[in-house]
Amino acid sequence: MTELQSQAPQGSGQITELQSLRGIAAVTVMIGHCLISYGPSSLLMGLSGLFNGRAAVVVFFVLSGYVLTRSLQKGRLDRDAILRFYVRRGFRLYPAIWVASAFGLAYLFALHWQIPPDRAGPVILHAFRPDRFDALHIVASFAGMTTFIIPQLWTIVIEIVASIAMPAIAFVVLYRRQWFACTLGLALLVSFTLPNTYYHVTLYLVDFIVGAGLAIPGLATRLFRNAPARLSVGIGLVMLASTRTLPLEYWSPAANLLELIVATLIIGVLTGANEKLHLFRAHFLGFLGDISYGIYLLHFAVLCTVVKAFTLLEWALGVSVDIYALAVLVTCVTSAVTILLAWLSYVYVEVPGIELGRRLLRFLGRPRGIGPGMPGTAVP
Question: Is residue 73 in some structural domain?
């Protein structure tokens, strides 16, 4: 969920719109979690459902498939290009994971079990299993392989697995398009027959393949050139907000397929339609897109910290504030603090991590011929 700005082609005209979409998706996940930080409440659960984090995750995955494939088509898809892709992908994903995990671990040590939950909602009650508070799960969390410290890290596990497979997927899309229908059909079959593998990797891998297919040169323009962009994107966003109201299980392959179709429509229109959406070019939305990875990784630990702080404040004042007022206050404070920390993470962690990956590739490139003169991928 982290690749857009640096991977889209220069001068494409669609980068800002896609960056903004990524920022909207990250904020959607954050607000959805904030609204169910207190409970139980059917009203808060319903409002949280409108901020459909599941659909936002599908948007992330389709975007990743699209932009990663675009990055891999910039040069020859040979061994050196794949090496560059993996190195840069690792340096793009992991520094922010380590910082967010350190923040989450500090919260666990300092606050989580020390302050009893007061009217906590399901999102907090079901997080941080005490039976997994051991060295193995902490190390696995920092490795991006489990969700003990960062509950939403399950999507990054899927991102990592998909990133490993992405050169092969991009090869099919760019050089063996006659195989694409079979690849997509096989992924759909696996998605519907084996959806409940580790963190549902097999359920969501099809999203990356569809996003990669959307990156076929000229395809989005041919399909969506004359689409009414404002109407199409508006209807698409409303549909994504309402899919949680359908009688489908959370991890349902049918729900994923429906949200995948709508997300692909939105991204296809944003990249291929002649009509442009000026709202999606707003500077603030672009800024949220830049820091969206940090928003996604950091917001849960910030949310839990804010909830504990409000609990201490209520104890100190001897009052009991209505949970609906608390939900609004927690959402506002969490959003403000998370955006600030995500910006700091972007400036002082993510960008330096990208540069470190570049320096490593320059160092490795001298003896191996992977130098500046050879085409390669942009930084994920």
Answer: yes
DSSP letter at 38?
B
Which one-letter amino acid corresponds to residue 376?
Answer: G
Inter-helix orientation angle 15-35/323-345, to 10°: 140
pLDDT tens for each residue of 172-224: 999 999 999 999 999 999 999 999 999 999 999 999 999 999 999 999 999 99
What is the rounded average pLDDT of the residues 335-354? 98
In a domain, 379, yes or no: no
Q: How many domains does the chain have?
A: 1
- Neighbouring CB atoms inside 10 A of 179's CB total 13
CB-based contacts of 132: which residues, under 8 Å, 6+ apart?
146, 148
Judge whether 375 lies within some domain.
Answer: no
In the prediction, which pLDDT does 366 show? 58
Residue 377: inside a domain: no
Contact at 8 Å (CB) between 141 and 101?
yes
| Host domain of residue 96 | 4-368
Whether residue 6 is predicted with pLDDT greater than 50 in this model: the reply is: no
Q: Which residues pair with 120 in a beta bridge?
A: 38
Q: Which residues pair with 38 in a beta bridge?
A: 120
User: CA separation (Å) from 19 to 13, 330, 356?
Assistant: 11, 26, 23
